[in-house]
Design brief:
Blueprint (H helix, E strand, L loop, with lengths): L4 E2 L7 H13 L11 E2 L1 E9 L8 E14 L9 E13 L16 E13 L3 E12 L5 H12 L6 E2 L6 E17 L4 E13 L2 E14 L13 E2 L3 E16 H4 L16 E13 L2 E10 L9 E11 L1
Antiparallel strand pairs: 1-8, 2-12, 3-4, 3-16, 4-5, 5-6, 6-7, 7-9, 9-10, 10-11, 11-13, 13-14, 14-15, 15-16
């Protein structure tokens, strides 16, 4: 079944809120004893969007609110385990956002609204993590309605057409990854290399994704570093990292539509091999964490092209 709704591609005002927090935090000086503090909780607001790359298609935007907590007494060991809970909304659009012609689209409109819970455990040079994602895709995600509200409130232009959207589906997914890291040079300008294989299985995504990460600059050891969202210390960190990965894709329900018992008229033929590349700049300034990222991936289906987007994030530890 196809759902017809008019909306506008998302450019949320959360960017303004992020910038406000960044300028406010940089205007403060950390206390002399900040390095002695131990933080066990964190709240993060993250926004992904491709409008800063002068495109408006595919993974158009994502909004994530995440809470993390360091466990004093973990399931396996004390002080090495974290729990994480997040609420997310993701929006996907075709290249031609003014066409109602189904045959002329390179992908269907898609929205996803979900909650994710995760557990992770860190050691001196390795990290294991497992996540469970539950959510709904389709009109019930509220993606088209949110964009329509934003357009009516803040934007003076013709909205794109949500004339062909994937149907409502409930999704459950499991993600697991293992990371191994090596320190090649110490601070003040450290060099770290890491490999991170990940697998995903469920109704939304099925893939295998090995990844390589290289970081350069002043940062904490793996067990308490911002690069992997670890809590504990608030020692100052400022570094950049390079990411490269190859994804072997078996299923992508937000691109293909409902492939299990559905009657979707339009199904994209996915590419089984997708390359992902990224650049991140991260800075920890006392309890304030900042992240600016740039992501590129090769085409995900036979009709789509390569895509790129920006990530902006602010997190406050306490």
């Amino acid at each position: 079944m196809l759902n017809t709704t008019e909306t506008y591609t998302n450019k949320p005002i959360v960017i303004l809120l992020l910038l406000w927090n960044i300028f406010f935090a940089f205007g403060q000086q950390p206390a002399d004893n900040d390095s002695l503090k131990v933080v066990s909780r964190q709240l993060e607001l993250q926004h992904d969007n491709d409008f800063l790359t002068f495109t408006d298609r595919y993974y158009s935007s994502g909004l994530f609110l995440t809470y993390r907590q360091l466990l004093e007494k973990g399931f396996l060991s004390s002080g090495k385990e974290q729990l994480e809970f997040s609420v997310r909304q993701e929006i996907f659009t075709p290249t031609n956002i003014t066409s109602r012609d189904l045959e002329g689209l390179d992908r269907l409109y898609a929205g996803f609204l979900g909650i994710q819970g995760g557990w992770s455990r860190v050691s001196k040079q390795s990290l294991i993590e497992a996540d469970l994602l539950f959510g709904v895709a389709g009109p019930a995600s509220g993606a088209s309605g949110f964009q329509k509200w934003y357009h009516n409130t803040f934007v003076v232009s013709d909205p794109p057409v949500w004339g062909n959207q994937i149907e409502n589906n409930i999704h459950i997914n499991i993600y697991a990854n293992y990371l191994k890291e090596w320190c090649l040079a110490p601070n003040p300008f450290s060099v770290h290399m890491a490999v991170k294989p990940q697998i995903a299985f469920g109704t939304r995504d099925v893939y295998v994704h090995p990844e390589f990460i290289a970081s350069f600059g002043r940062r904490n050891p793996l067990s308490s570093s911002l690069i992997y969202d670890r809590l504990g210390a608030v020692d100052r960190e400022i570094f950049f990292s390079l990411v490269a990965g190859h994804r072997f894709v078996f299923q992508n329900a937000l691109l293909e539509g409902n492939t299990i018992g559905g009657n979707a008229v339009f199904l994209s033929s996915i590419n089984k091999n997708v390359w992902h590349f990224g650049f991140d700049f991260k800075h920890r300034f006392g309890p304030n964490n900042y992240w600016v990222g740039y992501r590129i991936n090769t085409s995900e289906s036979k009709k789509t092209q390569a895509h790129r987007y920006i990530t902006l994030s602010y997190a406050r530890s306490f």
